[in-house]
# Entry
Amino acid sequence: MTSHSQPSVLWQRRSTRRYNPFLGFFSDYHLGLFVGLSLFYSLEVVLGNKTLKKMVSANVSGDLSSEMEVDAFRRLFPLRYHERFLLDSIRPDARPLGRARDTSLALGAVASADGSALAKIGCTTMLAAVKMEVMTPPKESPDEGSIAIEFYMPPICSPLVRPGRPAEEAPVVSKQLSDTILSSGMINLKELSLVSGKAAWMAYLDIYCLDADGSLFDAALLAAVAAFSHLRIPVVSLNEEGRVVVVSEENEEGKSEKEPVNKGKRKLTLSSLPFSLTCILHKNYILADPTAEEESIMETLVTVVLDSSGQLVSLYKPGGPVLAYASAVQDCIALTRQRVKELKSILNEAISDMEVD
Amino acid sequence: MEIGRDDGRTANQLRPLACSRNILNRAHGSASWSQGDTKVLAAVYGPKAGTKKNENPEKACIEVVWKPKTGQIGKPEKEYEVILKRTLKSICLLNINPNTTTSIIIQVVSDDGALLPCAINAACAALVDAAIPLKHLAVAICCCLTESGYVILDPTKVEEQKMKAFAYLVFPNSAISIIPEGSSHMEGELMEHGIITSVTHGVMSVDDYLHCLERGQAASTKMSAFLRRSLQSQAPNDSSRAG
# Structure
């Protein structure tokens, strides 16, 4: 139906538009091709996919109509589109199979939090912030603090998340993050204790996903680790009732009678930071750091978390049509080792940039 | 090397397994699986017409509901649901009944360690009982690593809490199966050695993990033989059930 009206509109435009030297000579051919292509699309189901493929391979020339056709092919046959790139060991965004997207870290993104970081892997963006509060430790562990980790996927991050339709991945990533951070032993909970049996720190780590474009767990873990590296424990002192309160910086002068319980703002000592890499297994290929489009087409994901001493913190493969043999597992772990080195250097650079300021 | 476990088992010994099918009479398929004191009941309803909003209507859809024994549904339950859903999706033949939903409800009856593997085994047996078309069966096992570096199988809850690390592994089990096109089959690697699902807790070295994989593969052959025997020996379903 639309193909009938389109030629008349284009004929009108052709007569009124100014002569474009680039297009001028080819515009008739251009137009005819466009009409022909739209007819072909509507007949695609009848003629079968071979016709479409022939068309795609014939149009190697760089005229403007080929862009639209490539986009349509990408939407109609996503798996075939990606496999054509995989045959050349490359991906649609020109990355080789084992390379992750560009990663950047900014520490101190949230000024009011005690520690914060903004991590970006490609387009996936995560904002992590740590807030410390004093609480009474439970009886079973009187000289240990605790950490509460929460991961949010607000509707800003993806068109599939709406206020009444929470994302399926949010509680899963949240639980994975808390398991990974607590079991990796990055933070010694005894460091979070203030007065044994009476007061200890509770660290609330909140991670907000601002843009969900694949590898959510990787970006969230990087943001969490960076936020803890940036964390400065606030100064506290005992007030008249014997409770521990945080000393605020504005009214320092009148507080001579209150001795701070811990002097100066100190950082946490972090041992063995965990870093992760998510890979997709598809037939014989292993693709590192998938985008959301790749994740939705090729559904087998493997997430490997290694800490800085090379120990395996977690290997998470939640089902998926492709089986992982020992060789594939070894390859994923090798890719993760390389990635750990990259991420460590990015984190150290970000920390040293903060300290220079 | 013999390590003394609390209940006198050796490192490679599994707890006594019991599986019974067709125990609920309203569900289209049901099974209960117990490993020692851990018991899980699974019920399957389906295929029902229609899929959920974001799912692909050209394929069948699977929905899992996990009910804990006590307490409210929280994040651990949601995580188990997602893991189960993806594992079971990979063993079902999704193209046979497009635009349908199959619901699997898991009820934890008692938890004494290795809960997720027990639930996966129960769900697989319930799917067979409901006659949902499957590519192959799945067998789940829990391997843990002790402080001294030994790998033991199928821990109780007390043992699980003392362990340095543990891994839940799910292997495919097939005497005859439909091999997918273009599957990455290396020479010398059997299909039964590929992992469908792996979930680990705790820090372990890469060699320990590969060691766990080998032990898990060896034990999965025993479990899959038990699964096949118990599924074959029970009486065929009567056709009077609604389906």
Remarks:
- The two ends of chain B are 52 Å apart (CA to CA).
- Residues 17-177+192-233 of chain B form a domain with the Ribosomal Protein S5; domain 2 fold (CATH 3.30.230.70).
- Residues 206-233 of chain B form the longest helix (28 residues).
